[in-house]
Amino acid sequence: MTKEFQLILNQVNMKQPFFLREWFAHYGKTANTVLLPQSAIGKSTIPVFLEGKGIACNRIPLYDTILPSDALTKLETALQLHPNFLAVFASPSAWRNFLHVLRQTSFNRPFRIASIGEVTTAAIKQDGYNVQLEPKLYTMNHLIDLIIEERSK
């Protein structure tokens, strides 16, 4: 490893949230792809980290102030490629947009849902879905910790 590469790697690692490094330590050797539904303006932190580690990250912008016109095509493709997934939601609007697009697909398999907290969970339950994972403290770090904990059981 060159000194230049090591310096870049160290800078990237220092900027990455702890949960990404912890997730990679636990699952990086077995994970091939990650499905990441998010807003059109979502940060690229997670995709950049994963792709830098050789893990494909299917970032699917599902919403903005308006639903992107290609959301259906992108979700259908992702569902075909990754039919078994844990869908993670950090806001009611992310859930509503995901569900709106999901209902336009022929996807009919069960999937697990993780929610960041009670407001998002209430929106999900209102639509007749159950949330399998919700952290006691409503932060993304605690949600990721819970996901990691559940996966290691």
TrEMBL record:
User: Which keywords does the record carry?
Assistant: Lyase, Porphyrin biosynthesis
Pathway field: Porphyrin-containing compound metabolism; protoporphyrin-IX biosynthesis; coproporphyrinogen-III from 5-aminolevulinate: step 3/4
Q: Which Pfam families match?
A: HEM4 (PF02602)
EC number annotated for this UniProt entry:
4.2.1.75
The answer to whether the entry has keyword Transmembrane is: no
Q: Lyase: present as a keyword of the record?
A: yes
Please state what the protein is called: Uroporphyrinogen-III synthase
Q: Which organism is it from?
A: Listeria floridensis FSL S10-1187
